[in-house]
Task: structure prediction
Amino acid sequence: MSAVTRHRLLLLLPLAVFLILGGYFALGLTRDPSILPSMLIDKPAPVFALPGLSEGEKGLSNADLTGKVQLINVFASWCAPCRVEHPLLMRLANEQGVTIHAINYKDKPEAAKAFLAQMGNPYTAIGADKDGRVAIDFGVYGVPETYVIDRQGRVRYRHVGPLMPFDVDEKILPMIRELSK
Amino acid sequence: MAAIALAATLSLPALAVMPDEKLADPVMEARAREISKELRCLVCQNQSIDDSNADLARDLRVLVRERLVAGDSNEQVLAYVHDRYGDFVLLRPPVTGYTALLWGGPFALLLLAGFGTALYMRQRRRDVDTMPAPALTAEEEARLAALLNDDKPGVGR
Result:
């Protein structure tokens, strides 16, 4: 290779660097770094037993998670995005017949009850996680979070943040259908 | 005035760790602080739970202290949190197949850059060695002759 050709090739270097960086960003920027993988995927849900919102009311334990494909929704009355996704949960429960269990995260029972009275109650059972310890066992790091649980009580999918119609149609419902087969 | 000045010089930077979280045993508390500095707050992701004021960070700090009181070693406490939140929660993630690029990347890049530079330098030296000297123009030729003849008595100027 003569010196001249080599220098010509060198001129292409910025373009090459640009393409590499461009490709890197094109991939990297489509990912949300705040969304973390769950450690529980394909593993049994943690062992827990939570009391209900009121004295004597049925709570939620991991024994309730087997036998039926279902969702676990971690919510709190003080969490604004929970309000955003709530109508969607109502539709899932009422129109699609999806079983949704709830973990009420670090909430006042009265506030949670008022929230459900106002927005509707899509939950089959609710466990009150007042100190947030069960949520830590699940690896929850922000509310709302939604888990898809299979018949054997294993966690199959986790969604962080409010559910959007897109998430439900593209991911949650197809997954529930697949697991229910 | 003197009291204010004294207070200002004595006051420490605000810490996230609240007095009510602290353990009575200073040795245990020091271990808890050490562990907390290794754990990432998942809410404000570039802070450790020791630095963060987020609720979850506080809960995790309390949890770390509880595990210590229950008799866990530092490693066991870290493993407990790692089991729930994954590699991301560790500010120094373990070297695994998945994180190999993260740990090895900078060294690979350095090696590559060094190799490239060495190659470039070698080529350059070879170029200089083999480059033919350019021919002189007529003007330069005349000037050279004049200079060479300068110190010869009786010739030139």
Strands of chain A lie at 43-44, 49-50, 60-61, 70-75, 99-105, 125-129, 145-149, 154-160. Chain A touches chain B through 17 residues (CB under 8 Å).
